[in-house]
Structures are given as C-alpha cells and as structure tokens.
Automatic annotation (TrEMBL):
InterPro entries: Glyco_trans_1, Glyco_trans_4-like_N. It comes from Methanothermobacter thermautotrophicus (strain ATCC 29096 / DSM 1053 / JCM 10044 / NBRC 100330 / Delta H) (Methanobacterium thermoautotrophicum). Residues 14-178 form the Glycosyltransferase subfamily 4-like N-terminal domain. Pfam families: Glyco_transf_4 (PF13439), Glycos_transf_1 (PF00534). Residues 196-320 form the Glycosyl transferase family domain. One of its GO terms (molecular function) is glycosyltransferase activity. SUPFAM superfamilies: UDP-Glycosyltransferase/glycogen phosphorylase (SSF53756). The lineage of its organism: Archaea, Methanobacteriati, Methanobacteriota, Methanomada group, Methanobacteria. This is Capsular polysaccharide biosynthesis protein.
Length: 405
C-alpha cells in the first residue's frame, strides 16, 4: 500500500514527532511518502521518501488575501503530488492540510490525523480561522476516517463540529519505551546542571504551551528551594519574551553557550531529549490546551514523575478512570501523576502579582519536590502507565486496520 503522510514540517513539534514515528512503523509493511509544505532541514528521524509541496507557510500576521492564496496553492500542489505518487491512503496532520487533503481526494482515501482540541485553538479565532473551522464541519464527513489522539479531541469534534462519532476512532500517539530508555543519555556538558534538583518542561515556545506561567511559579519556588533549577527545552516565537521575563524576575538565565551556574536554562531544541528527562526530578507541563502531550508520555516512560495542567489530554494519561471532560479546580493527586488547574493564559509581567492558579502551583510543586516518597511513588507509577498497552499501541499495524472506512 502506498501511504502519504502530509504535515507542515518535520520540526520540533509533537505532531512532527508522531508523524515521523508513524512513518517508521508503517514503512515495515508499506511504501511511505512523507510530504511537507515547505523546504526545511528535518529535525526528526523519518522513514520512506521525502517530498515538498514548496509552498511557503502562512502566518497569523499575513493579510487574508495572501493566506487564501497560499491555501489554494497548497491544494493545487497537493493534487499534483498525489497523482504523481499514486497514493492509496493520504494521512494529514493539521486542520488546513486535512481540508486540502479531502479536497484533493482522487483514487486515494484521505484520513485525518487529529492532534488538537480545535474549538480551543486561539490561533483560529480570526476570519481565516473561522473559515477553517467552517470547512472542518463541511469536509471532515467526507474523509475515509478520522483518527483522534484522545477522547478530548474526539469529543470536541463530535460535539462542537457535528462530526458523526461513528466516523471517529481514538488511537493514542505511539511511543517506543525501549527505544526511549536506550537513548536516555545526558550530554556530558549538562552533567553539572543536573547535580541540583531540576524541574524540566519541554515543548514549542508558543502561547498554547504557557511556559511564562511556569517561569513565574519557579521564581517563587526558587525562594523556597534555593538550589532548584528550571530547564526549558524547545524553541519558538515566544523565546525572546520568555527569556526577558526570566531575567526581569531576577533569575540568572542561560540562553546559549556552555551551561554553567544558572537558575533557568533555555536549552533550545534537543534532538535527543531523553537524557534530560531521565535526569530531572520532575517533569512539568503548564500548557493551556493539549490533545495528548507526547513529551509527557515520554518523560513517564523514563520514570520521571510528572505534574500537568488539567488542559485536556493529560487527564486521560494521568487519571484514566476519571471522566475525561472533568476539569479540576484544585490539586489532584491522580493515579499516575499530579493534575493542577490550567492557567488563565494572561501574559503577565515580572512585577505582576501571582494569579490564583500560579499560587496553587507554587504550593503543590513545593510539596512534591520536597517529598522523596511522593516522587518515588509517582516515578514507579509513571513507568507502569507508559508501558500500558491500553495507552501506547505496541506497533503501527493497527492504524490502518482500525480506520473506519
């Protein structure tokens, strides 16, 4: 079977990691073609052949006519490359590309791989975004199948956009626990940093990830635990703002070069993040919204205790027996990690008072970090959950067989 995987880029995002992992799994039995929107140096290890639509990405700052023009150009380019490759199945990994995938369906069967909680995507609140959401409602029913990574993302599609639940399957992102454990080597130049207690977070430096809230929380924690350090892995549009906030809070901030004695470390994109995860005392996810956070599952696979905002998918990972639609307003010591109320998303300055959620996070994280028994208990349970076949499919063969054509 000839399968196309269509995504914006093989960047440092969780979606790109999921698509790259899927390419490797499917390549064992199928002919795989990875198709990206624009030319770039891939940051992920992928399998199959690589193709580029060669259409520049639109950005929220672009005028509407330009964004519509790029949308149409991608449709034309995608139709052309599908015909050249004679695809049997085309799997798309973003809302706009999924719409374009369905529009260009010929002999191929278009499949939507849905990795977001669409109604809560603040990047789609403008005129263009509202148009994309309207097209989701109109086009997704024509897909051969819709694969959501979590119940949260699936329920959002069926409830907010009227998609028939019979057309939707929920298949969590795949992680290879053995491969992650085998790759968990910390670069030698970071060894001294991890001799102190470390809080780690990882993700694109974007609004949806909410890292500024964690930096503000950390500044207060640092007063209570003087040797505590915060390591932030990832890159993105908010890097300059986040670094400035850290410095304005009086935190000694590492922004590049040789790691030394700092409070906050902006480690940038790490092709192999697993050594950082394995050597951290606590992995923290401050996101404002998540469908199913891959970095959280990877940290758990390494036995790292986790605390996460109750912003969607984390509940399905950490409290699988609970109602996935429930949102906590207080600290919840769940079965496999700690869930906390999501932040309000307001981008505050260093001299602004902590909001209610930030104060609660300070108290909870302080309690966790200073209690070795709690950390050890959640470390063991994290490994157990990450190895659970109910959460992590052991292979990619089920993807095609579970697609509801």
């Amino acid at each position: 079977m000839r399968i196309g995987l269509i995504l914006p880029s093989l960047d440092d995002s969780g979606v790109a990691r999921a698509a790259a992992s899927l390419s490797s799994l499917l390549s064992e039995h199928h002919e795989v073609h990875v198709i990206t929107v624009y030319r770039h140096e891939p940051l992920q290890e992928w399998s199959g052949s690589f193709h580029v639509l060669d259409v520049p990405p639109a950005s929220p700052g672009d005028e509407l006519p330009r964004r519509l023009g790029l949308f149409i150009r991608r449709i034309l380019a995608l139709r052309r490359i599908k015909a050249e490759l004679e695809l049997d199945v085309s799997v798309s990994f973003s809302e706009a590309l999924s719409i374009q995938n369905i529009f260009t369906a010929g002999s191929d069967r278009p499949v939507v791989s849905h990795h977001t909680v669409l109604s809560r995507n603040e990047n789609l609140d403008d005129i263009y975004g509202r148009g994309v959401k309207a097209l989701v409602r109109l086009t997704y029913p024509r897909a051969a199948g819709i694969i959501c990574v979590s119940m949260e993302s699936a329920t959002d599609l069926t409830d907010a956009y009227g998609i028939d639940p019979r057309q939707v399957a929920v298949i969590p992102n795949h992680i290879d626990v053995d491969a992650i454990e085998g790759a968990a080597v910390l670069p030698a130049r970071w060894n001294d940093v991890f001799t102190a207690p470390v809080i780690l977070t990882a993700g694109r430096l974007t609004h949806a990830k909410g890292q500024w809230h964690l930096i503000r929380v950390f500044a207060r924690l640092k007063e209570l635990i003087p040797d505590l350090k915060l390591v932030i892995m990832g890159d993105g549009d908010l890097r300059e703002y986040l670094q400035g906030l850290s410095e304005d809070l009086g935190l000694k901030t590492f922004t590049g070069g040789e790691p030394g004695e700092y409070d906050v470390y902006f480690a940038g994109f790490q092709r192999n993040p697993y050594g950082f995860m394995a050597h951290s005392d606590l992995f923290v996810l401050p996101s404002l919204r998540e469908a199913l956070p891959l970095a959280l599952m990877e940290a758990m696979a390494l036995g790292t205790p986790v605390a996460a905002a109750d912003c969607g998918g984390p509940r399905e990972i950490l409290a699988p027996s609970s109602d996935p639609s429930f949102k906590t307003e207080k600290t919840e010591f769940a079965d496999y990690g700690v869930l906390l109320p999501p932040f309000d998303g307001e981008m505050r300055a260093a001299d602004d008072e902590l909001c209610r959620e930030e104060r609660l996070w300070v108290d909870t994280l302080h309690e966790i970090i200073t209690d070795r028994k709690v950390l050890d208990s959640y470390s063991e349970r994290a490994r157990e959950r990450a190895s659970s076949s109910a959460l992590m499919p052991s292979g990619g063969g089920g993807l095609i067989s579970l697609m509801p054509w």
